Amino acid sequence: MLNKVPEVTAIFWAIKVLSTTVGETGADYLAVHVGLGASLTAICMSGLLAAALLLQLSRRACVPWIYWLTVVLVSVVGTQLTDLLTDKLDVSLYVSTSAFACALAATFSVWYGVERTLSISSIVTTRRELFYWSAILFTFALGTAAGDLATEALGLGFQLGVVAFGALIAAVAIALYVGVNPVLTFWLAYILTRPLGASLGDLLSQSRDYGGMGLGMIQTSIAFLTLIVGLVAWVTFESEDARRPDPTR
């Protein structure tokens, strides 16, 4: 099996942030505006995620559109997990953030104990891929809870949330540049891009009365989905060009 995770480039991070924004706005749109409710939305999206994950696991190499479809669905489901705990079960954001952090830490501990690595450059077996997607789900759930905790419970608001989480990601990038472990900095950035994307999605979609720009959830979701499709198509064509033999040789 070839490595099942795309190369980590600027485009990778751009699609990741866009995916997290779609997860935030898309989940809210289905639950509130379509009227499915949090529970039914979570059930429907979990079913779609299971189908996408099976498709992803069935491939022997990374297929960009399948990988990123799975990421978008994980983003929606991760958002719904936090929303269900907060809205339906009245679980404090402090508790849910701590619980998801512990769940992610436990996943990393078991993953490292079994495989002796957490590197995404070596997702070359089904077992490692299952560990990887488990960690991804918990990063989205943790990022959602931490983002809601910062912007709502702690009162940062959407604009300050974007600035604060953007600054933290910049600090992680600087840490990578000065020699901090790349596996650690990758996972820190992956966690932080979730609340960054969620804050950005809320800033764009929420009404001005709540501190947003009032673009609406459906407009924001469609715009970001269009960008995701365009970037994934670009990555796909680039990878196909790279595999195509050079006729001059």
Average pLDDT value?
86
Structure annotation, total helices: 8
What is the chain-wise order of helices and strands? HHHHHHHH
The helicity comes to: over 70%
Which regions contain 5 or more consecutive residues with pLDDT less than 50?
none
By DSSP, the count of extended strands is 0
Shape type: globular
Structural class: mainly alpha
Q: Estimate the strand proportion.
A: under 5%
Please describe the biggest sheet, giving its number of strands, its sense, and whether it closes into a barrel.
Answer: none
User: Roughly how many Å apart are the termini?
Assistant: 28 Å
Radius of gyration: 18 Å
Number of domains: 1
Please summarize what this structure is:
The protein is mainly α and 249 residues long. 78% of the residues lie in helices and 0% in strands.
Describe the structure in your own words.
α1 packs antiparallel against α2, α4 (93-115) packs antiparallel against α5 (126-153) and α7 (182-205) runs antiparallel to α8. It is globular, with a radius of gyration of 18 Å. It is built from 8 helices and no strands. It has helices at 10-33, 37-58, 64-88, 93-115, 126-153, 157-177, 182-205, 217-243. The chain has 249 residues and is an all-alpha fold. The model has no long low-confidence stretch (mean pLDDT 86). It has one domain. It starts with 9 loop residues before the first helix and ends in a 6-residue tail after the last helix.
